Amino acid sequence: MAAAFGAVFMRDILQAWRRRSDWLNALVFFVIVTSLFPLGVGADPKLLKAMAPGVVWVAALLAAMLSLPRVFGSDHADGTLEQLALAPQPLPLLVLAKVSAHWLLSGLPLALVAPVLGLQFGLEGTAIALLFVALLLGTPCLSLIGAVAAALTLGARGAGVLVALLVLPLYIPVLIFGAGAVEAWEAGTAPGAYLSLLAAGFLLALALTPWATAAAVRVALE
Amino acid sequence: MAVAVAIIASKFIVPAPLSTAALLEVRDLACVRGGKPLFRALSFTVQEGELLWVEGRNGAGKTSLLRLVCGLAEPDGGEVRWRGAPARAQREGFLGELLYLGHLNALKDDLSVMENLRLAARLAGTDASRADVEAALAEAGIGALGARAVRTLSQGQRRRAALARLWLPGTRPLWILDEPFSALDAEAVQRLAACIAAHMHGGGVALLTTHQEVPLPGARVRRLALH
Q1: Which long-range contacts (CB under 8 A, 24 or more apart) does A163-167 make?
Q2: A93 and A1 in contact (C-beta within 8 Å)?
Q3: Could you tell me which of A67, A69, A210, B65 has the fewest CB atoms within 10 Å of its CB?
Q4: DSSP strand pairing (B36-47 vs B205-209)
Q5: Is B57 within 8 Å of chain A by CB?
Q6: Taking CB atoms and an 8 Å cut-off, how many pairs form between chains A and B?
Q7: What is the average pLDDT score of chain B?
Q8: Beta-sheet pairing, B79-82 with B85-86
Q9: Cα–Cα distance for residue pair B30/B152, rounded to 1 Å
Q10: Do A83 and B123 touch (CB under 8 A)?
Q11: What is the pTM of this model?
Q12: Do A74 and B71 touch (CB under 8 A)?
C-alpha cells in the first residue's frame, strides 16, 4: 500500500520537476498579485498592515486554484487515471497521494514565500510567523478541498471557470480563519483559536475529502 | 446400500478439473449508453487458458463491455463474477489479478519509458527492477528506448511501451486488452500475438477486441459477436 502511495506521489513530483515552469507560474502569480496591492492602494503603512493577511490569503486561494486543473487533468487525458482506479489499492489512498504531491508543489511554496510578502506589507516578527503557520495549516485544506472540485469537473467544458465557481465558496472558512489568526494578533487578542480551527478543518478535510474525490473520479471515468 | 449411496454422492462432490473451471463469468450483463441499449442479457464464461475475442462494428459496445467487466463502469444490469464470486465483492483480489490496457496508453509524456513502467509496476503492487523493465522492453521490441521521454516517441512506439507491461514480472491471470494491435507494425503484432498465446498456455484468461485477424497459434479462442 505504501509502495503504491509512493509510486503515485513520485510520479507527480517527477513530472512536475520536468515541467517546473507550470508550477512556478502559480507561485509567481501569488507574488505578483500580492505585490499589486501596495501599488494600487498607496503606501500608507497602517492600511497596508491591516489588509496584509487578507490580501495574502486571497492571493493564496487564487494561486492554489490556478493549479487545480492539473491535479487530474493530464491523468484523465492519458489514461493514467483509469489505471489508478483499477489498482488493487483503495482509490482514496491514491487520490491522497496525488493531493499530497499537489500540496508540496503548490501549497508549501506559497507558505514559504509568504513571510517575504509579509515584510513587504510591514508585518513584524510574530505576525509573520503566524501568517506562515496559518498558511502551513490552511494550504493542505485548499489542496484537499480543491481536489474534489477538480475531480468533479473532469471532462467538463470550461472546467477552469467551473472549478472557480465550485471551490471558492468552499474556501471561505479557510480564508476567514487563516486571515483571522494574524488579524487577531494585530488586534491584541489570542490567535490560538483561529489556528486550532484551521487545524481542525485540515483534519476534517483529510478524513472526508479523499473519499469524495475518489467517488468523483469514478464518476468521471464512467 | 448405504455404501453405494455414499460412493454415488462422493462422485458428485468431486470438484471439476481445474482446466474447465470458469474463471470469469458474466451474467445477464446490460449496458445502456445515451438512452439506447448497447446490449442486454449478455452472458458468457471464460475458462482457464481461453481467450475471448470480442467482435463487432464500431459502436457495438466492445469497449463498453470491457470497461464493465473490469469495473470501470457500472452495468445497467447483471454482474461479473471472478473465481465464482461477484467481482465487486472482492474488489482488491479481483483487481490484483487484472491487467487492463485501454485505448489510452497510460504513459506520462514527461517521464522516460523506464520510469513509466517501473512506477506502473509499483502501483500494481509488484516491484520491477531496471533489468526486469529492460527485458520487457526488449521483448516488446523497443529495448533501446528505455531512457527516452515518452513525448519523443512515435504512436507505435508508445503503444509498444504500454504493451511492455505484459512482459513485466508478476503477471496477472486476467488480461483485458482493448485494441492491443492498433498502431502496431507487423513485427510488433507477431510479438504480441506470441505473448498472448504464451499467456494462454500458462493458464491465463484474456478478453480482447480487435478489428485485425491475428493468428494466435495454439490458443483456445472463442468469439463473441456484439451487434
Answers
A1: A163/A65, A163/A68, A163/A69, A164/A65, A167/A65, A167/A68
A2: yes
A3: A69
A4: unpaired
A5: no
A6: 82
A7: 85
A8: antiparallel
A9: 41
A10: yes
A11: 0.88
A12: no
Report in angstroms the alpha-carbon separations of B157 from A135, A162, A208, B63, B163: 45, 36, 41, 22, 10
Do A120 and A186 meet the contact criterion of CB atoms below 8 Å apart? no
Say whether residue A13 is in contact with chain B using an 8 A CB cutoff: no
> DSSP secondary-structure letter at A189?
S
Of A14, A19, A79, the CB nearest to B106: A79
Tracing cell 494491435 back to the chain, one arrives at B181
Is the separation of the CB atoms in B44 and B224 below 8 Å? yes
Rg (CA), chain B: 20
Contact criterion met (CB below 8 Å) for A139 and A110: yes
- The pLDDT value given to residue B20: 54
Q: Amino acid identity, residue B50?
A: E
CB B200 within 8 A of CB B220: yes
Q: Based on DSSP, count helices (H) and strands (E) in chain A, helices before strands.
A: 10, 0
Contact B108 A85 (CB under 8 A): no
Per-residue pLDDT averaged across A101-130, rounded?
92
Q: Which of residues 94-123 of B touch A (CB under 8 A)?
A: 95-96, 98, 100, 102-111, 115, 119-120, 122-123
Contact residues, chain A, for B127 at CB < 8 Å? 3
- The single-letter code of the amino acid at B175 is W
Q: Give the ipTM.
A: 0.84
Q: Residue B178 forms beta bridges with which residues? A: B209
**pLDDT tens, residue by residue, B160-185:** 999 999 998 887 899 999 999 988 88
Chain B residues with beta carbon closer than 8 angstroms to that of A8: 123
- CB-nearest partner of B92 from A80, A82, A88: A88
- Interface contact A7-B111, CB threshold 8 A: no
Residues of chain B with C-beta less than 8 angstroms from the C-beta of A83: 100, 106, 120, 123
> C-alpha cell of B204?
491465463
Alpha-carbon gap, residue B102 to B64, rounded angstroms:
11
Q: What is the DSSP string of chain B?
A: -HHHHHHHHHHHHSPPPGGG-EEEEEEEEEEEETTEEEEEEEEEEEETTEEEEEE-STTSSHHHHHHHHHTSS--SS-EEEETTEEGGGGHHHHHHTEEEE-SS----TTSBHHHHHHHHHHHTT----HHHHHHHHHHTT-GGGTTSBGGGS-HHHHHHHHHGGGGSSS--SEEEEESTTTT--HHHHHHHHHHHHHHHHTT-EEEEE-SS----TT-EEEEEE--
